[in-house]
Known about the structure:
Blueprint: H1 14-24, H2 28-42, H3 49-72, H4 82-98, H5 107-126, H6 131-151, H7 153-156, E1 162-163, H8 177-201, H9 203-213, H10 215-220, H11 225-251, E2 253-254, H12 261-274, H13 281-299, H14 304-318, H15 322-345
Antiparallel strand pairs: 1-2
Helix pairs in contact: 3-8, 3-11, 3-12, 3-13, 4-5, 4-11, 5-11, 8-11, 9-11, 12-13, 12-15, 13-14
Amino acid sequence: MSTTTKVSTTPAAAQPATRWSRLRQIPLPAVAIVALLLLAVGAPFQLAPFHTFQLAMAMIYAVTLLGLNLLVGHTGQISLGHGAFFAVGAYTAAIAMKHAELPYLVTIPIAAAVTFVLGYALGVPALRLRGLYLALVTLAIAIFLVPLLKRFDGLTGGSMGLTVTKPVPPEWTGLAEDQWLYFLALVTTVASFVLVAGMLRSRVGRALHAVRDNEIAAEVLGVRLAHYKTLAFAWGALLAGVAGAVYTWVIAFVSPDSFAVTLSITLLAGLVVGGLGTTWGPLLGGLFVMFVPSLAQDLNQAAPGVIFGLLIIAVMYLAPRGLAGLATQAAHWLGHRLRKGNNHAH
């Protein structure tokens, strides 16, 4: 009785190629997300404290822009007053920490609840307004917020603002203060992006996109316009309020002049430059809002606003769909090259 042994005819050199082919089949967005998270986790251990602070601020602005993108990019409702919700969240956290002496982590749900209610309340009258009229109403909110904050000295600190104590890192973490604040901002940013991504993939996201694309057709299909418009305002305001609370932790100081109307305009410009209605647009816009004004200040201290405006024009000329659109084109080109190389390997 003979035993037949089956011998593999596959060359040993082909096995590594097969593994590499499987690696190249992993979707590029998943690879980008994992690589970005790894870089984000390792960044505070490699950077100076000031640069760690800058990245934390960029993530805070990214969460704010995530809420603005939900309203403007995914629902089609213009807003020039998003900085007001950011300010309300910051002051809510500061008042809770300063006067009520509440733990800093408790200020997140409080700021979220307050700004959600305010956003919903603004969304109700906004139902009758569109385009420039809606933009003017939201701009008016950002304008009168600053003198309103200065009026209540006992609560808001008036023109002098409020100073709070920065969160102290737990001893078991072994982290410095700037690193701990950075990771608080990072966790908030990741959680916010995951929440919004899940929302946009659900029935709510489809309804918001239907409202943005064609309100009449959406209403014919059974979408409740009033409900989803007010919901977009409320969720957008909530995210801005959460970002404002984390801003208070990182800065440990709030004042009315920090939330002037120029903040709302800069946020909208940052979102458009980052990529309106895109996944990565708020993150790229947060980096833009944080670093470009300081870059403009370094280039020309006499007229940083002019340099800032010229940089915006240059970015929009070179990338009409924003930086996220430019990154998407680069990713498609890279994916095409990888698939082409994979086909040649076979």
